[in-house]
Amino acid sequence: MARTLVTLRTHDGREVAYPRPSGKAKFTPQTGAGISWAKWSWNPVTGCLHGCDYCYARAIATRFPNAFPAGFTPLFHEERLAAPVNTSVPARHQGDPAWQRVFVCSMADLYGRWVPDEWITAVHEAMAGAPWWQYILLTKFPARYVGLDLPPTAWVGTSVDEQKRVRIAEDAFRHLDGGAVKWLSLEPLREPLEFTDLSVFDWVVIGAQTGTRQPDGAVPAFAPPLEWVARIVAQARKAGCKVHLKPNLVNGRPGMTLPDEYPTAR
User: Fold this and answer.
1) How far apart are CA 103 and CA 155, in angstroms?
2) Chain-wide mean pLDDT for the chain?
3) pLDDT at 29 over 90
């Protein structure tokens, strides 16, 4: 039997047919080795226009066209908004903080400048209706956070991969109100970075670039020199930030113990 279709819309108003889910919307459990500290993902928005050549999300969307009928064009999945109230932590994982954390829009940038305000409002309202979850937010356009009514349990993050994003991140987070944790993702770390003030962040995560197969060919993995990492870790320590280094920085070399710290919510 053919599945019933729903009509979704892209950021520029184009209609896209999508199979109606057969059950209640729920978070997706993360079974891979991606983010060990958040065991769920939730994608009420998919797609992105930043155009990063290494983007893992675009690579996934390209591999599974049936699940991404608009490709990597930003698309609003309003049928997924009820997931926070429909999902429960499995009994065997009760008490594990990682199972209370949800990576929001792992396949998109919810705060990209092309995202309609009403999409963000709808997602924030869904988060506010289920405040028992810790929502992991991440964007390359942190200025969009400023002035928003951010969920009080959100871990509000920004991604910096190149020096040109440093000032943008620091300026935005100096004016940021709300959220439980302010964090900085330096993954992939593609060049040596110089910060003027890491004290505006509670937590710094650093990682390497994993290899992906993009629509126009393969993009190789890249692990930054350890001196780039050490310089940032030293500055983070001085600023009082917790630090988490991804295992992909050392490619599994034995004998390497990496900082694996987590912030305390405000």
Assistant:
1) 9
2) 94
3) yes
Q: Where are the alpha helices (DSSP H) in 99-165?
A: 117-128
Q: At 115, is the pLDDT very low, low, confident or very high (cuts 50, 70, 90)?
A: very high
Would you say residue 45 lies in a domain?
A: yes
The three-state secondary structure class of 10 is: strand
Residue-range definition of the domain harbouring residue 224: 7-18+26-84+97-249
| SS3 call for 242 | strand
Establish if 260 belongs to a structural domain: no
Rounded CA separation 61/180 (Å): 31
What lies within 8 Å, CB to CB, of 204 at 6+ separation is 183, 184, 186, 198, 232, 233, 236, 241, 242, 243, 244
On whether residue 101 sits in a domain, the answer given is: yes
pLDDT in tens, 69-95: 999 999 999 999 999 999 999 999 999
d(CA 193, CA 31): 32
User: If you ran DSSP here, which 8-state letter would residue 54 be given?
Assistant: T
Whether 92 is covered by a domain: the verdict is: no
CA distances from 81 to 40, 141, 147, 152, 154 (A): 15, 23, 23, 18, 16
Q: Is 148 exposed, middle or buried (0-12, 13-18, 19+ CB in 10 A)?
A: middle
Give me 17's structure tokens: 């047919």
CA 40 to chain centre: 11
Domain with 64 in it: what CATH number?
3.20.20
Look at the block and give the residue holding tokens 């049928």.
79
**144-153: average pLDDT:** 95
